[in-house]
Specification:
The chain is α+β, with helices and mostly antiparallel strands. The protein has one domain: Nuclear Transport Factor 2, Chain: A (Roll). Helix content is 38%, strand content 45%. It is built from 4 helices and 6 strands; from the N terminus they run αααββαββββ. Strands 2-1-6-5-4-3 form a 6-stranded mixed sheet, covered by helices on one side. A hairpin with a 2-residue loop joins strand 1 and strand 2. About 9% of the residues have low confidence.
Length: 134
């Protein structure tokens, strides 16, 4: 009879562990909101002091303020219509997300990588590339 009572406790424990792991893989909502709005200044709030930015013809490590300016120029040229995260996950101390950005001039695939810095999750890499429907 005791083993029957233990089964619900084990199931509840497994469910809570799974939920906790999924919650830890959540990308801060402010990142999606900033990208969807085309707001580079807001997005920069989530950036590490230096980030790797791979954006169309630009690919390098940039200081946060320079990356913000480059992204501001991108959003000025490509007015955003919508952004949705398609996949996100976590591995070790890093979290990542892949999303689709729809703009007035075409669609893009967006990848970003976040790592913890002093207990704060910050963007270390942003990759924005043309999405030709593949």
């Amino acid at each position: 009879m005791k083993s029957v009572n233990i089964i619900p406790v084990v199931l509840i424990s497994l469910i809570s562990l799974t939920t906790t792991a999924q919650d830890q893989a959540k990308i801060p909502g402010g990142i999606s909101i900033a990208i969807k709005a085309g707001n580079a200044a807001e997005l920069s709030r989530y950036m590490n002091s230096t980030i790797e930015l791979l954006l169309l013809d630009k690919e390098d490590f940039y200081k946060k303020n320079v990356a913000e300016t480059i992204l501001k120029d991108f959003f000025a040229e490509y007015q955003t219509k919508d952004f949705t995260i398609r996949h996100q996950g976590a591995k070790n101390d890093a979290q990542y997300a892949i999303g689709n950005l729809k703009t007035e001039k075409g669609d893009f695939r967006v990848y970003f990588l976040l790592k913890k810095v002093d207990q704060e999750l910050l963007i270390h890499q942003i990759r924005i590339e043309s999405d030709n429907g593949k």
